[in-house]
Specification:
Oligomer: single chain
CATH class of the largest domain: Alpha Beta
Distance between the termini: 57 Å
Order of helices and strands: EHEHEHEHEHEEHEHEHHHHHH
Strand order of the largest sheet: 3-2-1-4-5-6
Radius of gyration: 20 Å
Helix content: 55-70%
CATH superfamily of the largest domain: NAD(P)-binding Rossmann-like Domain
Shape: elongated
CATH architecture of the largest domain: 3-Layer(aba) Sandwich
Number of helices: 13
Structural class: alpha/beta
Largest sheet: 6 strands, parallel
Length: 300
């Protein structure tokens, strides 16, 4: 089932904000690509636009490809796609490799991997960071967990979707690193929101705030990415607040299991929960500013 240039044929399940862009880069790179998703008709429409094939079930997808990539919302969906009724395991052949690029609990990844292995199917966890703009231009950072040979088999696909690809350890290590990274991003976004509110309350010029902090030790990727949207209260979704809330929760669960605390992530989780309760769950996670402003009774 390999392509003429010996690259693996790819199956891609999940065509949401991230998945649709990642799959598009695989199509542009010339992979033999088959797609599927749980929304009726969506895969067929996407495939017609991008020159790919489409099937209805994960079992059909598994039968059609060498490497099956999943990019869905949570561990329950990953389990259903890979191990459920008409899931990938039902259509698996001896060469099938599954690659989960979703962000789920590390323990779930290991458990799913064990069940797949018992059915003769390998698994790599390869969550990504970079949000939708980097998914669009194929410059994601991809952190891979799993057997080195399996990671190598999937590498041609990773190189079409990402700029920095790092094999970080055994199965589950990619997810472990991803949720820590996202918890740190959420904590940095919370600090940015609080800094903007404090600067506004002190009567500072926020243009000056951005210039000085961006050039100083208080600068961060979150300042560069989220200060403008926060100041404009423009929460066009690059990464959903509800998804960030989920990821921070996964990190806190993993930290608890490891026997350590993560207070800054706990604070970010509280702000995300408050913003979600106020109706911002589908907005970009920059909307945690709304919770900070509510606490301060002040709008920047």
């Amino acid at each position: 089932m390999a392509t003429p240039d010996d690259r693996p044929s790819i199956g891609f399940y999940g065509l949401g904000i991230m998945g649709s862009r990642m799959a598009a880069n695989l199509a542009r790179a010339g992979f033999a690509l088959t797609v599927a998703t749980h929304t009726p008709g969506k895969a067929q429409a996407w495939a017609a636009e991008h020159g790919a094939a489409a099937v209805d079930t994960a079992a059909d997808l598994a039968a059609a490809c060498d490497v099956l990539i999943t990019m869905v919302v949570d561990g329950d969906q990953v389990r259903e796609v890979l191990l459920g009724h008409h899931g990938a395991a039902d259509g698996a052949h001896e060469r099938l490799l599954c690659v989960d690029m979703s962000t789920i609990a590390p323990a779930d990844t290991v458990a799913i991997g064990d069940e797949l292995r018992a059915r003769g199917v390998g698994l790599v966890d390869a969550p990504v960071t970079g949000s939708s703009p980097k998914a669009e231009d194929g410059t994601l950072t991809i952190m891979c967990g799993g057997d080195a040979d399996d990671v190598a088999r999937a590498m041609p696909a990773f190189e079409a979707m990402g700029e920095l690809i790092v094999h970080v350890g055994p199965l589950g290590a990619g997810e472990q690193l991803k949720v820590i990274n996202n918890a740190m991003a959420a904590a940095n976004a919370a600090v940015l929101a609080e800094g903007l509110v404090a600067a506004s309350a002190a009567g500072l010029d926020l243009d000056a705030f951005e210039r000085v902090v961006g050039a100083g030790s208080g600068g961060s990727a979150m300042l560069a990415l989220k200060a403008g949207p926060m100041r404009a209260h423009d929460y066009a979704t690059l990464f959903k607040l509800d998804h960030m809330r989920k990821d921070v929760g996964l990190c806190l669960d993993a930290a608890q299991t490891a026997g350590v605390s993560f207070p800054s992530a706990e604070h970010a989780a509280d702000l995300l929960a408050e913003a979600a309760a106020a109706g911002w769950g589908d907005a970009d996670f920059a909307a945690l500013l709304e919770a900070v402003e509510s606490r301060a009774a002040r709008r920047i």
